[in-house]
Amino acid sequence: MSARDSVIDWLMDGDPVIRWQTMRDLNGESEAVWQAERQQTAQDGWGARFLEQLRPDGTWPAGRWTDTVWTLLTLIECGLPADHPPLHNAAQRFLDRHLTPERASDERWLLQRMDLCHLGFWLRIGAYFLGLDTRLALVAQTVLRAQMPDGGWNCRIRNDPQTHHSSFHTTFNVLEGLALAARTGNLTPEAFRQSERRALAFMLAHQLYRSDRTGAMIHERLTYLTFPSYWHYTVLRGLDYLRDRPEIGDPRLEDPIALLVSRRRSNGRWPLEQRIPGVTFLDMEKPGGRAGGIRCERSGYYTPDRRKLRDYDGCPRLGIGVAIGINAKIT
User: Fold this and answer.
1) What are the beta bridge partners of residue 315?
2) pLDDT for the residue 149
3) What span, in angstroms and rounded, lies between the C-alpha atoms of 227 and 276?
4) How far apart are CA 199 and CA 189, in angstroms?
5) Can you tell me the distance from the alpha carbon of 243 to that of 99, in angstroms, rounded to the nearest whole number?
6) pLDDT in the model for residue 298
7) DSSP string spanning 227-243?
8) H or E element at residue 311
9) Contact assessment for residue 69 and residue 114, using Cβ atoms and an 8 Å cutoff
């Protein structure tokens, strides 16, 4: 058995959340096959255990990281079906509670009372579970107008208007929300791409984790292979986002790609690194866990047109121009 086959067998022994993504992104199964497995995520394993904690009022217990917003974001990452009734209803109640039509149309309220990160979360949750919604279109326009001159966003600007440098965390929390908003018709593709191009130029200037002035690593925690990441940015999350963008061919990504490759263990698997402190309903991952593994394993097997790359000594041959398929987008 090849090293790659061994790793895929290991992934296929995991939770339905891992299996359906392995089928789609590594095994090349037909959509009918992986969609059938995806439906199981709401019935068995991690997804079902999250749903068991759902209360009659459509919320999850408050806490870091058990609150409704974090749970919905995690379930999006896991790819639970958006039309699963209890989950869809919980998302509907969440958005109705936080984003009334009056708030959605009040730009001053949105920018002075809410962090930009949470506006990004609302866009992502709303677009994933509800699709086209006038409230989301209004929030998306507000977020676009809040983009900073350097190309990104920063939550700190709400309390400190003199803030002039964007945040990696805020930028990706916003981008992921805007991307889903554009995909579901809440924002035009042209407006989104114009904004996205500026934001990714900001990230590329930092090679995803370095100072744009000195080239030094900004903080080691940005390099950890962490899942779930909640509101925290990591290089893995950045490469995940960039994998199907034109910017994936930029030579400044050679450094973060090499960083990812260096974390692979001798058995071909990938470690889970540095859990984010807080309370959770369950441990989705253990050291060497599969959720991190599927994200990393996908990284080397597909080019932008999704043709399989050659293996080299049992590992993917990575290089500039490779589309980083770490966490293929949920569709």
Assistant:
1) 312
2) 98
3) 8
4) 15
5) 31
6) 65
7) SS-TT---HHHHHHHHT
8) strand 311-312
9) no
Q: Return the C-alpha torsion angle 78, 322, 234, 160, nearest 10.
A: -110
**pLDDT band for position 319 (cuts 50, 70, 90):** very low
The pLDDT confidence band at residue 295, using thresholds 50, 70 and 90, is low
The model's pLDDT over 135-169, given as tens digits with 9 standing for 90+, comes to 999 999 999 999 999 999 999 999 999 999 999 99
The alpha helices in the chain, defined as continuous H runs, are: 3-12, 16-25, 31-39, 45-52, 68-78, 85-98, 101-104, 107-113, 116-130, 134-145, 168-183, 189-205, 235-242, 254-262, 290-297
pTM of the model: 0.89
Residue 243 has pLDDT above 90, yes or no: no
- The pLDDT score that the predictor gives to residue 311 is 31
Opening angle at CA 98, ends 234 and 135, nearest 5 = 90
State pLDDT tens for residues 169-222: 999 999 999 999 999 999 999 999 999 999 999 999 999 999 999 999 999 999
Contacts of 130 (CB under 8 A, 6+ apart): 88, 91, 92, 95, 136
pLDDT of residue 288: 56
Spatial separation of the C-alpha atoms in residues 224 and 271, rounded to whole Å: 9
Closest CA to 76 of 114, 129, 35, 116: 129
Peptide bond into 228 cis (omega under 30): yes
Is the distance from CB of 117 to CB of 155 less than 8 angstroms? yes
Phi, psi for 84 (deg, rounded to 5): -65, 115
Tokens standing for 222?
């940005």
Q: How far apart are CA 104 and CA 18, in angstroms?
A: 36
The CA distances from residue 326 to 104, 164, 216, 291, in Å, are 33, 31, 25, 10
User: Is 317 in contact with 310 (CB distance < 8 Å)?
Assistant: yes
